[in-house]
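Why do we bother with holo predictions? Because pocket geometry can differ from the apo form. Keep that in mind while you read this record for benzoic acid.
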Amino acid sequence: MAILIGDIAPDFEAETTEGHIRFHDYIEGSWAVLFSHPKNFTPVCTTELGYTAKLKPEFDKRGVKVLGLSVDELKNHPAWSKDIEETQGTALNFPLIADHDRSVATKYEMIHPNADNSLTVRSLFVIGPDKKIKLKIEYPASTGRNFDEVLRVIDSLQLTAKHSVATPVNWKQGEDVIIAAAVSDEAAKAKFPEGWKTVKPYLRIVPQPQG
Ligand code: BEZ
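The structure, written out:
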């Protein structure tokens, strides 16, 4: 059965480059990113993992635990990590799951048999502190993902979880936002006492709430 936004992220146990983990215990109370890449020692994956390692301080700032998943064996990870450091300037600094038996990849439907029978596609899940799936993206093996976009979505998810707003097209941290449709004008007066701009009755713009 497909894993959908709003579903509880399936729990699992796995060996990683940072030891054995039980996923739900590992992410307890945090936001998390779980992403698969098709194969160690391949070019696009090497750039993706190096860039994600470079972004670690940004994920930390947002309270997000990052986990990569590979169907390669654990013993193959250290040599590849060295390559990542050598070619991308940053070594792996987050756990990489060694999903050799593909049990996690199968649970998370990361293998798309009509694309490849044994390797994962580039799946990525953002999971909230309530352990529910907040974002799900899937890219083919030939296309590297945009991890700056993943951070942008996390900013939106964290903002909209806290305030009664939604974020418009191409929104970035600090830009104006939209008052959630479920908030009446009456309720909005209390939530946004500084006022808002009504473009249409269903499109009400306010500065991004702080805090
Ligand atoms: C890559 O990371 O470059 C890659 C991996 C698997 C299939 C195709 C490309």
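Residues 85 and 91 are 4 Å apart (CA to CA).
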